[in-house]
Amino acid sequence: MFERLFGGRTVDPAVRDRVPPGQYVTEKFPVLHYGSVPRVDLATWDFKVWGEVENSFRLTWDEFKHLPRKTIHADIHCVTRWSKLDTDWEGVAIQEVLKLGNPKPTARFVVEHAEQGYTTNVPLEVLDDEDVILADTFAGQPLEAEHGYPLRLVLPKRYFWKSAKWIRGLEFLAEDRLGFWERYGYNNNADFWKEERFSD
Questions:
Q1: From the CB of residue 65, how many other CB atoms can be counted at a distance below 10 Å?
Q2: Res 4 pLDDT > 70
Q3: 141-142 and 133-138: which strand pairing?
Q4: Taking Cα atoms as reference points, which of 138, 144, 124, 123 lies closest to residue 76?
Q5: Is residue 172 packed enough to be buried (19+ CB in 10 Å), middle (13-18) or exposed (0-12)?
Q6: Contact 47, 152 (CB under 8 A)
Q7: Of 111, 114, 130, 176, which one has the fewest beta carbons inside 10 Å?
Q8: What's the pLDDT tens digit per position in 66-93?
Q9: Cα-flanking dihedrals φ and ψ of residue 5, to 5°?
Q10: Strand 167-173 and strand 46-51: pairing?
Q11: How far apart are CA 178 and CA 121, in angstroms?
C-alpha cells in the first residue's frame, strides 16, 4: 500500500543527504488535505494582506499575475513521510508581498489563511526567505485543483503542511496563533531535519 501511494522506501545514496530522517523519496505527488477541493472563480478571487502591516491591501487575480515573477527549484517533504526532490515552481516571491504590505516592527508571526477556513502559522523570519513564493505554476503548468489551484504558498524549509494550498491571504501578528493542524497536535515549528512532526 505505501509503495503504491508514495513509491519505494529505499533512498538512493546519491541523494541521501537531501532526504530528512524518516522520509522516503517518491516520484509521485501524493494528494493529502483536509476537506474537499474548493471550486474557484477567478473573477471573484482575491488575496488579502492585513494585520501588523503599514499597508493592508487586496489583490485581484489579474493584479496578482502582474506582480514580478520568480521560479524556484526545491525539494519538498511531507509530514506523512514522503519527499519529492527537484520540484520546480513559479509565482511571486514573498518579498514582493512584504514590500507591498510593509510589516510593522511589531509583526513577528504570520497566519496563512486558505479556502474553507484552513490556517497554518509561521514566524515572519521563516516566511521571509529567498526560496518562499506564492506559486501558481508547478513543473511549467498551472497548479492542479488538488494541489492548490489557483495559488499556494511554497515554503520548502518546513514540512509541507506549512505550504498552504488554496491560499487567500496573510495575516501579520505580534503574537503567535496556532493554525489548523497545529491545534490538532502537529509541531508548531515543523523543521523536518529535526523530525518535528508532532508537539510534545
A1: 14
A2: no
A3: antiparallel
A4: 138
A5: buried
A6: no
A7: 130
A8: 999 999 999 999 999 999 999 999 999 9
A9: -80, -45
A10: parallel
A11: 6
